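Catalogue entry: protein

Sequence with per-residue tokens
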Amino acid sequence: MRKLISIVMPSHPLEKYKKLLTKKPQVNDKYVIIDVKWLEHWKRYVGIEKSDEEKVTEPGSIEFSKLVDPATAKNSNEIQLRSDAVEGNDYTFIPYELYKDLVQT
């Protein structure tokens, strides 16, 4: 007698990313601070958000330097967020799982 095995194919990465971006935070979830402008560019690049541009350029590597207090930038063990950085305007949080995917691609 044969045993049937059900295989669930992973959904399209875009759907996975959309889910992660709208996921409600849970206790013990890990999040990463990310530059809002970089994230918005990436969303347009992968098609999560529509763009007026015909072709959106690749966003490049994730850049954190604009978020870091220059006085602490030289000491990589204790960097701090700029005191004038505003959540939603300069930075936002993304799930660590999404961050891992972004740095691997």
